[in-house]
Amino acid sequence: MERISIEIGLRSPVSIAIRRGVDNVLRTLDFIPGTTWRGAFAKAYINKYGQDTDFNKIFVEGGAWFSDLLPDRSRVIPYTAFSCKYAHGFLDDDAMEKPHGVLDILCDTVLDESFGTQLQPANCPADDCHDTTLENVRGFYKRDGTKYTHVTAQKSLLGHTAIDPRTQTAKESQFYVLETLDAGQRFHGDIIVQDRALSRKLQQAIPEIETILVGSDLTRGLGRASLRIDPSVTALEDTTLQKRIENFNARFADAAENLFFFSLTLESRTIVLDKYLRYKSNIEPEDLQQAACPDPILGHCHLIRAWNSTSSVDGWNSKARFPKLSETAIDRGAVFVYAIKAEHTTTDQLCRALQQIEEKGIGERREEGFGRVTVCQQFHWEGDNK
Ligand SMILES: [Zn+2]
To answer: How far does residue 91's CA lie from ligand 1's centre (Å)?
Structure first.
């Protein structure tokens, strides 16, 4: 398995519709989903090389998995991140009023709910602000050493008039506003490739293709983007999985003996089906067991806490010129915490099983960027107020 880091630079504004709708303000997503740029890249690939055998391996047989691309090398803020209602944001954010910082409530919540440690309710940690309750922080963050900052994709609104296809003139009462991601921004992610030959082919094709067209309204000059291999390859987390599991468990050492804990944080939307093919909102031990192909250890763990939500995933099949079937995904940023009795496993065994899940992801449509997860993410256990 190889990982190719990718950077897409927007040469013109780009609009990626949130969902099909009848509203006259069409909102854009603030990231480029794997499924969107995979389709754009496939089209550019065919124009350049035709539908050769590598095309089938990459795009049809799922030999390459295209991640979501997020703005400016950022990551998704987990659902367990909370901040002051009045001075919202990371301590190092550039804001009018100095933010009071971001707390991750995962470990304290689990300790309180599962072991009755009766911790104080999470209020703002800043001096003179202790009575203020906290609220969710959403969006993207970037970490530089111990410094955390918010990252926001820049957007604008463009006014448009729909064109009548028969007369080629402006259609009456058809004014609409299109939200776009501004030109000049960069988005980052990767392609996971299953075999080395395919990886070589992609590393040759990406610089040769160089430009792709993403999103909607391409005929209006939107959607031009440069595609390149990102030379600054960095691991998402600073430490090894083993160290992360140890550090995470250190937070529970006083409360629980003979138990291992681990968390799963969704880096992208995740589609999980039960045996009757219904969409799930939780990732349960049986799903972990299946994802680690099949690992008996994870079948012994228990889901003890979840911070999650679901939303529908729409799409457009440009080959068939038809909307894709709407699906329900667990939102990115969702967090699940599990416990497993020490008698069922050792740290080594647990680490091996969880490594598989981090590498291969969970659930459906992983080639389109769904199902990326991080185990015991540093964000949850490192420091207090960020
Ligand atoms: Zn405060």
So the answer is: 11
263 in Cβ contact with 106 (< 8 Å): yes
Cα of 125 to ligand 1 centre, how many Å?
7
Q: Which residues surround ligand 1, an ion (CB under 5 A)?
A: 84, 87, 100, 124, 126, 129, 132
Question: Strand 102-104 relative to strand 81-84: parallel, antiparallel, unpaired?
Answer: antiparallel
Contacts of 87 by beta carbon, 8 Å cutoff, 6+ apart: 95, 97, 98, 99, 100, 124, 126, 129
| CATH class of domain segment(s) 241-381 | alpha beta
Please give the distance, rounded to the nearest whole angstrom, from the Cα atom of residue 233 to the centre of ligand 1: 37
Instruction: Choose the CATH number for 2-71+153-229 among 3.90.550, 3.30.70, 3.40.50, 3.30.200.
Output: 3.30.70
126-169 pLDDT, tens per residue?
888 888 889 999 999 998 888 999 999 999 998 877 777 777 77
Cα torsion 270, 275, 278, 284: sign: negative
- pLDDT above 70 (res 22): no
Q: How far is the CA of 94 from the centre of ligand 1 (A)?
A: 16
What's the gap in Å between 98 CA and the centre of ligand 1? 10
Q: Which residues contact 246 (CB under 8 A, 6 or more apart)?
A: 347
Phi and psi at 157, nearest 5°, equal -110, 135
Average pLDDT over residues 201-208: 93
Global pTM reads: 0.91
Instruction: Write phi, then psi, for 343 (nearest 5 degrees).
Output: -65, -20
Q: Which pLDDT tens digit goes with each residue over 74-95?
A: 999 999 999 999 989 999 998 8
Ligand 1 centroid to residue 329 C-alpha, Å: 33
d(CA 133, ligand 1 centre) in Å: 8
pLDDT at 118 over 70: no
* 99 CA → ligand 1 middle, Å: 8
- What local confidence, expressed as pLDDT, does residue 120 receive? 64
Residues of the chain with CATH 3.30.70.1900: 241-381
Find, among 189, 74, 192, 200, the residue nearest to 143 by Cα.
74
